[in-house]
Design goal:
About 0% of the residues lie in helices and about 65% in strands. The protein has about 150 residues and is an all-beta fold. The protein has one domain (about 1-145). Strands 1-2-4-5-6 form a 5-stranded mixed β-sheet, with no helix packed on it.
């Protein structure tokens, strides 16, 4: 969990340093950015107070080429944005969205491809309140490839 003291926004779902595997075979970091519009049935945003997100992997497919082996990973990031409404009584509202991704991780040539797994971690995120109806959210994701049964043997 991260807290932006300047904007008083709480971020839930960010992995702690101790949650990452200690000796990955390979990894890939990338960003996913989105511009989100508040659904028409919801009121305008006064202030975003919390963003909750989770990364989900749908599929990890090994691809072998004449030059190397790689894993093609596709998945999505679900997020819920909680905010106070731009109304006198400032009620709290939420809306959600989902962002898809497809990324490739190049693998070292000396690993056994039949005994690997891919895990996903949310490294960081930040939301920018652009207008009363629009936010821009940026998430940093890390995909980590490890051995299935044991690590660093």
């Amino acid at each position: 969990m991260k807290f932006d003291h300047e904007r008083l926004t709480m971020y839930v779902g960010i992995a702690g340093r101790d949650e990452f595997p200690s000796c990955p075979l390979a990894y890939k970091q990338f960003t996913v950015t989105e511009k989100l519009i508040v659904p028409k049935i919801k009121p305008d945003i006064e202030k975003v107070i919390k963003v909750m997100a989770a990364v989900h992997i749908h599929d990890a497919k090994i691809i072998s080429s004449p030059y190397d082996s790689k894993i093609l990973v596709n998945g999505h990031i679900k997020q819920i944005i909680m905010y106070t409404a731009k109304k006198l009584d400032q009620p709290v509202h939420t809306f959600h969205s989902s962002a898809s991704f497809c990324e490739m991780i190049i693998l070292p040539s000396d690993i056994c491809l039949s005994h690997i797994k891919v895990e996903s971690f949310l490294e960081d995120m930040h939301i920018f309140h652009e207008t009363a109806r629009k936010v821009h959210i940026c998430k940093v994701v890390c995909l980590v490839v490890t051995e299935e049964e044991k690590c660093c043997s």
